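INPUT
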Amino acid sequence: MYKILKAENPADKIYLMDVEAPRVARHCAPGQFVIVKMDEKGERIPLTICDYDREAGTITIVFQTVGASTEKMAGLKAGDAFRDFTGPLGCPSEFVYEDIESLKKKKMLFVGGGVGAAPVYPQVKWLHEHGVDVDVIVGSKTKDMLILEGEMEAVAGNYYPCTDDGTYGHAGMVTTKIEKLVEEGNNYDVCVAIGPMIMMKFVCLLTKKLGIPTIVSMNPIMVDGTGMCGACRLHVGEDIKFACVDGPEFDGHLVNFDEAMKRQQMYKTQEGRALLKLQE
Ligand code: FES
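OUTPUT
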């Protein structure tokens, strides 16, 4: 069993938990994910690792309630435990293998949308710990929906919050903030965008136009996270990939987002049905 040491609800429908999982904490790297299971018959839920403490042996996960299983998971409290907590899975972010000195010469931009700020955070933190400071844009609908603000500010070179309703930070979508930063003379060598599929699609359309290579995380389309269900199958250029085993990170300019979003919709319907059943 994997004990939950802390359970918080930092924003509406968004939950953060610290879980005791020393083996995962010892071996994980930014970009990787875990699969959690609440009980023997529970659904397998893939979640990107938001933070880890190797000494304390803990992993931080952040999730948004989107269906029956995540709704049930939101009810777990500190002291409860997960039946399974498998990981680390997936490939670490590519920069982990790059030479630190050449990373320091790059101008990197990270873009997180909504709960996508959670998987962006360990990447920015890892880079900061290795002496690489990057720019970070985090977007949400309103100020209340922004998560991990203090944490992100502590590790980002520059932190730019954006809200759709203009209540805080830059007023508007993350794409308008990217345009603004580029107009102001920021020549980014690479962009990493993680968030809702539609956000990643529009960030990629923009960065393609601006000539900024872009990495995206296709975690949102994963279902079982083992390469068995086929739900995360996607086209990356001419190649067919599975987000859970070949990714989750891919060249965003090559990802067929329309196909991936169609597939995601299909599963949403099933999640919706399961949620209705839970509420009966
Ligand atoms: Fe099922 Fe990747 S999530 S095959």
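end of record. The chain has two domains: 2-89, 94-217.
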